[in-house]
């Protein structure tokens, strides 16, 4: 299956990065190279480092960037971008883009085991390495499984679902997405089954996040990006659910905060200064036109941080 991914808020994101033809940029989540190709097309003597942890993306995106000598394609996680960039001689960059979450290809390719819409081996590994979702649902203790579903899926029925999974796996290992989806469906009350959306949606999200360590990698990636940004450089992050967006929102707000002394202190003693500014105070959402063309964009949020000129690094 061809690797396809339709970038969300494409125009807004590229415009927010303010591409300098001579600048240096990182796309930490290359995917199908939609954003990467747009950046590369705007470069002359500049360079683009395109990173992805998915071998399928590296093959497809790499092929699409092959005609752009400005682009370097590397297999890796965006949380490692600092080390990867420095190996390429990029100590300071003018922009970083992170399009967080699962790609359309990963969702739509049944063999990747991300979706409850297909019956396929239970996998969900973006890097195609390490423990899979099958390992988690069959090996995690019930209490830990419940915690994962509650924390990453924000599902009030986490305990019921975890209990149902553990009961089912005592009879036989849970091997496929369809098996798991049916177990979840039978574990929740009838009212939940009749509700909007599939009752397995939140559990599948939770398992995917846990399998790939997504929230930890996001925190590490934000820190790495901030360290690499040159003064005036911009970090653009697209998120797709509240857990991700909350992390990005809080981190960017912290960079912009400055002094953290109690309000009743007569003078500042912490010495902290704002490290930059928010380009969009509340972030951007997709337009109505985009939502009509791409329903998957409905939960997307674009936040952009611009590094100040007063500090060389965060």
What is this structure's SSE topology?
Blueprint: H1 10-17, E1 24-27, H2 34-41, E2 47-52, H3 55-64, E3 71-75, H4 81-87, E4 93-99, H5 104-108, H6 133-139, H7 142-153, H8 158-171, H9 177-187, H10 190-194, H11 201-212, H12 214-228, E5 229-239, H13 242-257, E6 276-278, H14 288-293, E7 301-307
Parallel strand pairs: 1-2, 1-4, 2-3, 4-5
Antiparallel strand pairs: 5-7, 6-7
Helix pairs in contact: 7-8, 7-11, 8-9, 12-13
User: Percent range for helical residues?
Assistant: 40-55%
> What's the number of structural domains?
2
Terminal residue distance: 42 Å
CATH-derived topology of the largest domain: Rossmann fold
Describe the structure concisely.
The chain is of the alpha/beta class and 314 residues long. The protein has helices spanning 10-17, 34-41, 55-64, 81-87, 104-108, 133-139, 142-153, 158-171, 177-187, 190-194, 201-212, 214-228, 242-257, 288-293; strands at 24-27, 47-52, 71-75, 93-99, 229-239, 276-278, 301-307. The protein has a seven-stranded mixed sheet, sandwiched between helices.
Tell me what the structure shows.
With 314 residues, the protein is α/β, with parallel strands linked by helices. The chain folds into two domains: 10-105 and 214-307, Rossmann fold (3-Layer(aba) Sandwich), CATH 3.40.50.150; 129-212, Orthogonal Bundle (DNA polymerase, domain 1), CATH 1.10.150. It is 43% helix and 14% strand. It is built from 14 helices and seven strands. The chain has helices at 10-17, 34-41, 55-64, 81-87, 104-108, 133-139, 142-153, 158-171, 177-187, 190-194, 201-212, 214-228, 242-257, 288-293; strands at 24-27, 47-52, 71-75, 93-99, 229-239, 276-278, 301-307. Strands 3-2-1-4-5-7-6 form a seven-stranded mixed beta sheet, with helices on both faces. Helix 3 links the parallel strand 2 and strand 3. The longest helix is centred in the last third of the chain and has 16 residues, at 242-257. The two termini are 42 Å apart. The model has no long low-confidence stretch (mean pLDDT 91).
């Amino acid at each position: 299956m061809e690797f396809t991914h339709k970038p969300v808020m494409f125009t807004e994101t590229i415009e927010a990065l303010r591409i300098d033809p001579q600048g240096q940029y990182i796309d930490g989540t290359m995917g199908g190279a939609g954003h990467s190709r747009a950046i590369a097309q705007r470069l002359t003597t500049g360079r683009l480092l395109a990173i992805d942890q998915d071998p399928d993306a590296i093959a497809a995106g790499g092929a699409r960037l092959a005609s752009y000598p400005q682009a370097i394609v590397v297999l890796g996680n965006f949380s490692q971008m600092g080390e990867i960039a420095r190996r390429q001689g990029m100590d300071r960059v003018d922009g970083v883009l992170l399009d967080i979450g699962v790609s359309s290809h990963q969702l739509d390719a049944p063999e990747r085991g991300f979706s409850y819409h297909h019956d396929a081996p239970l996998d969900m590994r973006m890097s195609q390495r390490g423990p899979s979702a099958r390992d988690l649902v069959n090996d995690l203790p019930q209490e830990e499984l419940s915690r994962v579903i509650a924390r990453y899926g924000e599902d009030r029925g986490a305990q019921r679902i975890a209990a149902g999974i553990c009961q089912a796996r005592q009879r036989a290992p849970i091997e496929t997405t369809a098996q798991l989806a049916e177990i979840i469906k039978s574990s929740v009350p009838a009212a939940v089954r009749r509700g909007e959306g599939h009752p397995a949606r939140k559990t599948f999200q939770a398992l995917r996040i846990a399998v790939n360590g997504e929230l930890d990698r996001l925190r590490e990636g934000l820190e790495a990006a901030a360290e690499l940004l040159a003064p005036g450089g911009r970090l653009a992050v697209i998120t797709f659910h509240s857990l991700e967006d909350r992390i990005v929102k809080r981190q960017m707000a912290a960079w912009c905060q400055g002094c953290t002394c109690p309000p009743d202190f007569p003078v500042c003693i912490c010495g902290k200064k704002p490290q930059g500014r928010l380009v969009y105070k509340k972030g951007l959402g997709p337009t109505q036109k985009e939502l009509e063309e791409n329903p998957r964009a409905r939960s997307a949020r674009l936040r952009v941080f611009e590094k100040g000129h007063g500090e060389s690094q965060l």
